[in-house]
Amino acid sequence: MKSLFYLSVRVCLTAQAAAQTFTSCNPLNTTNCPVDIALGTNHTYDFVTYEAGDTWNNTAGALDYGPSGAEFSINTRGDAPTITTNYYIFGGEVEVWMKAAPGQGVVSSIVLQSDDLDEVDWELIGGNNTHVQSNYFGKGNITSYDRAIWHPIDKPQEEFHNYTIRWTKETIEWFLDGASLRVLKYEEANGGKNFPQSPMFVRIGIWAGGDKNNDEYTVEWAGGETDYNKIPYTMSVKSVRVTDFSRGSEYSYGDMTGSWESIKIKPGNSTIAEELNAPPPMTASQRWDKLSPGAKIGVGSAVGVTCVALVALAAFYCVRQRKAGKKERAFADQQFEKETTELMAYRQRMAKGGFAVSSMKV
Question: Is 159 a known active-site residue?
């Protein structure tokens, strides 16, 4: 019985480690939080053709784009490239075509999260090529450990799969490649108290849960310590479809309960919807393809002339530098010797306590 208790504690702490969430202003604690800008429509992002754009915030590492879409890569320790929508949905559906990152301890995640820490997740572990985890949290409550479920999946680090979350005020449903894997009813989440029910944004990213500086439970949950000698680790996202089941321009909390009924919807057209309906920015290659043959010739000629001018300028500079080189080199050597002498003197004074705090003038 004692060993079962400790096992329960470890699983509980592992679940806590998996909840990589925070909030800048929690409406459960104050009535002064800013309103949530609504999506108020639906939109599909094609990352094979276009970059994420201004409706996403990019943090902790830049994205690359290629034939596989948006590429989220850990290229060095500390990288955790993530994109977050700068709008919210209040009930809705999120569909992501993703190929998870390989690598022990590397976590690929799709998260819906609210300001008061409601959360719905898909998470994949780089060292696990047979299962994907679905999970949820209500109001940041991590006291129980029975919410995460692992579902069978085939080669998630080698093939693209469709990960979908459908969220209403009655149920949350997780779909994998169009097949329903799990349904959570409102009343099943601690009588509704832990059921995610406040406006949520979308966050997609990759992070090293197995970093050795993380606590042991996080590293264990992530499948072991991350080996940075094998970087890069890359997660690819082809497309994202976001649907907001509510219509309005913004969402706000009517009180500090965080309940579905307390959320206020401001009527009007969403500014995000207007921005999304604008033509997406073209990539450099697309802008080049749009040019006429004559324009391409003109650009090529201009580049050629510029290159010739730069070569000539470089040659002139080299000749001039040769003449002045001896004099400048002598001056540079003098400066180097002077700075080295000053540095050595400074170190000696530091070693002797010549710059003690009590003698410093402030």
Answer: no
